[in-house]
Backbone:
């Protein structure tokens, strides 16, 4: 009989146990399945190279799988939703684990009521709360800048992500100036932060924006120095 989960430690222990058995039995099931598919599609890839995670073998297999049906259609329908789900799943449990850990360090209970086991659905409850919050715009603000700053922050973050290569020949953007482009994009963050404080038309947020601006600029200097050796 399976032991009942009564606290967060039992939940984490159960997850780790599941991951252990999955990693243990995955090669036992995956290798025979690979050889069965190889008789049909003729991948020509050494399966033992895959087990040792050889990059060339993995890339060769991925390209062959993507170019053949039904894997091509499956790739189109599942890749980007799959990456999105994985990112949300990891972020979901990382934030929940952080809140429970901080609560234990501060002798508190932490998330408890949202969900059956130790507030496991607390992140979902927070998301629903944020989505249905009222959008409040003060009367004295500069409305065009006040509303454009959040979108500008998301655009800058998206521009940085577009420079991250997904493979040797797979990328969204490949600027010839390389790392300099990254620093050029990062340089917009202090400007957006200052505009966020200025758009409120209040001296206190503006002073906070100036402090954040000075911090970001001071952080950029050691960041640039740390990458000089690589460049």
Residues:
């Amino acid at each position: 009989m399976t032991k009942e989960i009564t606290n967060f430690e039992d939940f984490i222990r159960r997850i780790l146990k599941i991951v252990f058995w999955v990693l243990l039995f995955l090669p036992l099931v995956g290798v025979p399945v690979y050889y069965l598919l190889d008789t049909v599609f003729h991948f020509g890839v050494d399966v033992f190279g895959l087990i040792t995670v050889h990059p060339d073998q993995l890339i060769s297999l991925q390209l062959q799988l993507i170019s053949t049906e039904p894997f091509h259609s499956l790739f189109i329908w599942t890749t980007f939703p799959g990456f999105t789900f994985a990112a949300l799943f990891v972020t979901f449990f990382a934030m929940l684990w952080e809140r429970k850990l901080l609560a234990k360090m501060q002798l508190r209970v932490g998330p408890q009521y949202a969900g059956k086991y130790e507030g496991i659905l607390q992140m979902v409850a927070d998301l629903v709360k944020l989505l249905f919050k009222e959008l409040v715009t003060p009367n004295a603000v500069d409305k065009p800048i006040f509303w454009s700053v959040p979108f500008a922050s998301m655009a800058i973050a998206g521009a940085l992500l577009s420079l991250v290569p997904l493979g040797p020949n797979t990328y969204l953007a490949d600027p010839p100036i390389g790392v300099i482009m990254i620093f050029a994009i990062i340089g917009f963050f202090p400007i957006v932060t200052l505009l966020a404080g200025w758009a409120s038309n209040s001296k206190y947020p503006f002073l906070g924006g100036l402090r954040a601006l000075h911090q970001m600029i001071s952080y950029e200097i050691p960041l640039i120095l740390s990458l000089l050796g690589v460049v």
Notes: Residues 84-133 form one domain. Residues 2 and 14 are 10 Å apart (CA to CA). The chain has nine helices and no strands.
